[in-house]
What we know:
The complex is a heterodimer.
Chain A: E1 3-12, E2 15-25, E3 30-34, H1 41-49, E4 56-61, E5 64-65, E6 76-79, H2 91-100, H3 110-123, H4 139-152, E7 157-161, H5 169-186, E8 189-194, H6 197-203, E9 206-211, E10 214-219, H7 221-226, H8 231-236, E11 241-242, E12 253-255, E13 260-263, E14 271-281, E15 284-290, E16 298-303, H9 304-310, E17 317-322, E18 326-327
Helix pairs in contact in A: 2-3, 2-4, 3-4
Chain B: H1 2-6, H2 20-54, H3 58-66, H4 68-101, H5 107-114, H6 116-119, H7 122-133, H8 140-145, H9 154-165, H10 167-180, H11 183-190, H12 195-224, H13 227-233, H14 243-252, H15 256-285
Helix pairs in contact in B: 2-15, 3-15, 4-9, 4-10, 4-12, 7-9, 7-13, 9-12, 9-13, 10-12, 11-12, 12-15, 14-15
Amino acid sequence: MSIELSGINKRYGSFTAVDDVDLRVESGELLALLGPSGSGKTTLLRIIAGLEAPDSGSIAFHGADATATHVRERQVGFVFQHYALFGHMTIFENVAFGLRVRPRRQRPAEPEIRKRVQRLLELVQLDWLAGRYPHQLSGGQRQRIALARALAVEPRVLLLDEPFGALDARVRQELRRWLRRLHDEVHVTSVFVTHDQEEALEVSDRVVVMNHGRIEQIGTPDAVYDHPASPFVLEFLGHVNRLPDDDASGAPRYARPHEIAVSLQPQPQAWPARLAHSATVGPVTRLEFAVDGRDAPVNVELPRAEFRALSLVQGAIAYLRPTRVRHFAAAPD
Amino acid sequence: MSTAMALPLPFPAASATPGAGESALLRRLLIGAALAFLALFLFVPLAFVFYQALRKGLGVYVAAIVEPDALDAVRLTLLAAAIAVPMNLVFGVAAAWSIAKFSFPGKSVLTTLIDLPFSVSPVIAGLIYVLIFGLQGWFGPWLSAHDVKVVFAVPGIVLATMFVTFPFVARELIPLMQAQGTEQEEAAVVLGASGWQTFRRVTLPNVRWGLLYGVILCNARAMGEFGAVSVVSGHIRGATNTLPLHVEILYNEYQFAAAFAVASLLALLALVTLAVKYAVERRTREDGSPSGERPA
């Protein structure tokens, strides 16, 4: 089930949340809407769900216009950041809710409901919690139940609003991979909102980078990371250094921390810099260099072993040479 | 404490801390004062009501209560509450639901209006109905032409009771519903639930204890209301007297034992209300383990 958005606008008073967005979500893909808070990604997701109405523009599911379709009839699954499980119902009843509220004629028979809920609980690997209440579950378990509940109605489209935002880092990482595997299994067209670039790059088939209500770039994780379309995308997807010298046209040049080589001897096209600080975090060492006549430090990441081999001490002079430079001649920052 | 004072303390303020006994003394004083106040102004009068009611013996007490006028007063009080409480339950839920879950023009005006019965003196509230429905009032001539009695009759008493108990349910529910937000409702609607299904299966169960609490308070006030009802009642014995009005009449006629006997009924109602309220509050606190488990 593909989703086509065209010319979507949404304003709240004087604030433009979504600004003339066109987007096509391909059938079966897992798409990430990535951007800082206030970039309009959640509003866009809620517009797709039908929880918000756009001021102008249209939405179509698989070619059929759905702009005026009520959220109840859109057949979307929605997973909320804070789960929104029904606290007074058991886990089983939470998952069964979407089936039980159907009009009598469309409602599956009780044994069929049981079978389907059971299957979904097995899919999220929590069938042993069927009789519990949401407050007895951990955050990660609740989010998996929320996902099972959304899938119970066999949605045409699955929408997830910061699904891992309220979880701690470790659980988040686990769930992220689990979601990816689940999507490969279920294959329902999915859109998820996140402000975490790592999450977007790791999980999704394609990433939509948003800023100020507009789409900055759409592409595969590799494409947006390796070929950012604007300084914003470059800076939002991972760390980046603005290099001390501009290019011939006066536009700034950038290099990512792991794309800078460090040597102890002077090199062509390398600047001298003083090591201000270093910290080893797991396999990488993060170095902070001070360059004369420049306020912002240059951050470099080296594999742990490489840093050891250099045997740099704090305050020592080293020479920095970017191995890969990006510049945006058209749009100076 | 003296040893602490003798030590050379770098900060003068630190000398206040060693007196852990001081704060305990203060604590006891404060608790003592609060308890003494409660005893003097709440417990003693309550006990006095029962003491006076039973002073002339159980026979007089029972006689005062089973007296026909007293029984009529009980009946009218129950009737007024039986109409006013369900009406305000429906209104309160509707108002709280619309205020907490939707935004619409005039929302703040509605919120303020709900509080009006709290800010207006009950006597004024009663007078309003006299001025509207009384013989000299707007609808008076029309009503009397059609032989409908509102003021100095049962409908007036019910109206006045409803007005005074208007805010209880809504006031209780609005903050609760606002705190719960709309996410669960949104989840229900996305899953295909209709408005009514969302309300009955999601919103209502989430506020049920707060709702019960509001109804209890509403009921207590409906049965105990004096001022507004007094104005519209006309004090016709056996016809338009509610329990509080009956107490006043007996008292003014120097039938103290009877007055206190009937008053003790209201006092008992208050005690039952407190007990139920306490139970509901405990349930609210430990909620999350609801008793209404449905077969899974």
